[in-house]
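Much of what follows relies on a compact textual record of a protein's fold. Each token is a code from a learned vocabulary of local backbone shapes. The record below shows the convention in full.
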Amino acid sequence: MKNIILSTSIFLLSSSIAFADKSAVIENYANIALAKFEDSVITAKKLQTSVNNLIASPSAETLNAAKSAWLLSRNPYQQTEVYRFGNAIVDDWEGKVNAWPLDEGLIDYVSATYGGATDENEYAVLNIIANPKLILSGMSIDATNITRELLSETLHEADEVESNVATGYHAVEFLLWGQDLNGHGTGAGNRPWTDFGKENDCTNQNCDRRSSYLKTATDLLVSDLEWMHAQWQTGGDARLELTKDVNNGLIAMLTGMGSLSYGEQAGERMKLGLMLNDPEEEHDCFSDNTHNSHYYDGLGIQNVYLGTYKRIDGSIVSGASLSSLVAALDVDADIALKSDLTSTMVELGKLKEAADNGFAYDQMLEKGNKKGEALILNAVNGLVTQTRSIERATIVLGLQRISFEGSDSLDDPNAVFN
């Protein structure tokens, strides 16, 4: 993935924006981060409870309850992704909890059509759950006990292969849903509850180890989210780093908005999959929840600019905003960016509504599906357009040159097929 360098000029920040105004904007941004990660912890703990219930009493009902809890846990978390690119502490940590795509054969059994080890990843079908003894990088690994350390320190991104994802939301997602073998057809993954069954109820073998992996990965997810929540509290490293310099703090905010909007979401998560017509190129591919991931990513971008966030309990966290800073210098630029953000959310809302009504994201990706292509492209175009308005806001604020994340799918489409 390459970067695009946006052409911005360096100006002196207008004297009409006081240091205190900028500090208040950054403080509110940090407070919203704290609230988002707290909501992520709260919903992950509800998932943890549901997983424990599934393991204690496996049934279709307890499996479905765990799936529902996983889906709900994604909504606040996805709204935190806008904090990634401008805050190194978040970006360095993010791979533990949201890495994708993953070679699911590393974790558990997969369909025979999945294939085997590849030149890119010799551990693509390692199947940790079926093998208490592993050979990794020529070394014998004792995986009898599926511990947090085994998953996070030994197996996650083993041999520096990014698709060796052993932890995080998507590892848990795969364990709950199993593979989605429907291609562009109807349906998500369909793992039977008996994969977690006791004794004679057990299907596909190793139910005790599968349950152990699921519990360990879920516990680790909660722990990782708690750690990040702590970084945004008063005196936490993320908040301290952000507030060292007010201009750098504003740059972090705009970098997160622009990079998620353009290279990551419009490019890597949406346009690329449409170009490849690949149902595997969807963020939440096992659960068919990608439409919600895209929607809440977009909402996260919008609420950074507006300085407001609606919590899972319905309360609102709000305060001084980037919008107020931009409006003080250039009302038209502020109106344009707010309008573009709203337009993008309308398009993401249409995509979400279609999927909620049975037109799944992987179906939208099918070659020749004009309705799906239009839904995705309209959202992509909205994200690209709003990125240009984010660039304009950066210029208005007189901030230094910013590098936003790019994507070949947007910047050099021919390279995608080379």
Observations:
- DSSP finds 15 helices and six strands in the chain.
- Residues 215 and 277 are 34 Å apart (CA to CA).
